[in-house]
Amino acid sequence: MVFAMFIGMLSATACSQEKGNEPEGDKLIVANIKYEVSIKASEKVKINFIVTKGFEPNIYQDGKLVSQGNYDSDDIETDNIQTTFTHKGQALVFGIIVNGFYDVTSPDATVLLHVKTYQDDKLIHDFSKERKVGDGFNEQFTHYAKPLD
User: Fold this and answer.
1) CA distance linking residue 114 with residue 129, whole number of Å
2) CA-based, 20 to 30 A from 16: which of 6, 67, 113, 117?
3) What integer pLDDT is reported at residue 16 of this predicted model?
4) What does the alpha-carbon distance between residue 14 and residue 127 come to, in Å, rounded to a whole number?
5) What is the percentage of the chain residues whose pLDDT exceeds 70?
6) What are residue 105's phi and psi, to 5 degrees?
7) What is the chain's alpha carbon radius of gyration, rounded to the nearest angstrom?
8) With DSSP H G I counted as helix, E B as strand and the rest as coil, what are the percentages for the chain, rounded to 5?
9) So what CATH class is 2-15+29-144?
10) pTM confidence score
11) Of the candidates 44, 42, 41, 39, which has an alpha carbon nearest to the alpha carbon of residue 101?
């Protein structure tokens, strides 16, 4: 249920899929997919990570197995976090939800989001964006493993 709500919410918001990385049927391969994530906020915020994968099991966060299926983290309260999600498979979708503390966090608080996508240790996509917390926001990243040139 949480994943269905998340996907529905993301369909109406930002999506940061790499250009030219749409799936092409049987041309997908099994590869090591990694997202390096850095989030720095001007004030403490609540962060939630949601990670979904294809058919292959196992999602790792910072080298530790966190799920054999899809993963939905607990809320993390911080103003600075660096973490890595990895998966060996054909696809990995990574989402971030950021919210302020409604009675404490200024809606003008800023969040710098930096996400790097790797396939088999090769940098595929580098995304960096500064956002205002406002009423909260989310970003989604999708990577389909394809043969590298």
Assistant:
1) 7
2) 67
3) 47
4) 12
5) 81
6) -75, 130
7) 15
8) 10, 55, 35
9) mainly beta
10) 0.82
11) 44
